[in-house]
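Service request form, structural biology core

Requester: graduate student, group of Dr. S.
Request type: structure prediction, single chain
Budget code: on file
Notes: please return the result as structure tokens.

Sequence provided:
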Amino acid sequence: MCFEKICVVFELIVIYGNTLTNVWGHGIIKEAYLGHSSQKLFILHSEPKTYFDAENVCKYTGMKTYSGNKDEVNLYIKIKAERLGWNTFEDLWIGFIKHSNSNVWYSTKSSDCIEKSFTIPGQLFHERQCAVLNMSEPSYSGNPNLLYADSCNGRELGFVCLKSSGKIPKAVEFYPSSTVVENGSSRISWDNVTDTECAVNSFSEFFCYAATYFPETGICVAECTDMDNVPENVTLVNSTINSTVLLRTYNKVLINNTMTNLTSVSDPGQIPCLPDTQTTTGISTLASTSEQVTSQCPCTCPTTSNISTVDLQQKITQIKENLTVAKTSLSSSQRKLICAPDERPSSVTMGILGTCVIIGTLFALVGSDLFKVFFITVKFLTRKF
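Core staff response, request fulfilled:
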């Protein structure tokens, strides 16, 4: 009798496992984003503006004009925009400017002009020019014409605003008991790391879009690709082993089609930002050709100290005590004792179903014996009295 009950329980467990597999078989589809150490949001404005009006709109919305000359990032923006329906004949201003009688480009950030040493196709020495992201060029890695130089005056284009929101491991999603279907064209792995270190290592590599972490071994494997095969989405399915999938949720590209009502700004001429007198750190003085350098320190900085060796050691000990963290309070230690939270509807449904199956099985096994014990007890008491 006991053997038959064990067989029944085994069959129920097999049926329950097959049910979970069928539920997970459909997978979870998430949009794929390439990694970057900073959390970046690229907003493409379709409203045509002059270069300086475009900068004004970005500043008004709390952002800055995107300024990047890395081919892989520019191609990433272009590919994502095309998938969102961007018109490939509408080029975009980005935040680089070159003054007349110069071959030096400047990235305008806040009120400084940061000097950049590179050459853009169409660059002319005797003209003041601004940089344009060429959206009509074919999208393939190694394309040397993703940027070109054009006159800052007399042309209105869309533009790219950039918002940065800190660095990883923020904005990384964790999916326990999962595996990713879309394998990368290349992989990078690390041994003996935590899940946080796995996120930092994987998504500091720009070409990586997902990672799988194995808690039991501390191994991290990042799925990476080249710019010619950037995935649109990734699919997550149930894993038969203990593994957690990490996905990047930032570096999004969005299209803004709203119209702004800001007053048009006047052309600042040769000086599009406030002048600065520093030249030794790459900050150029556009209004002057002198080599004057202004001190960065607003106060007199002491160069000597009268602190004794004993006091110094006490301060070092105090700093160590303040910075020391108990190992038991670390998230990695706490996760060994508790289950990872998973609030996905599919997981909640499977948990409820599993609970019902287990309780029902136990009730069926124990209930029949309880009824038999009850009748035997009643019969015994009846005979006794």
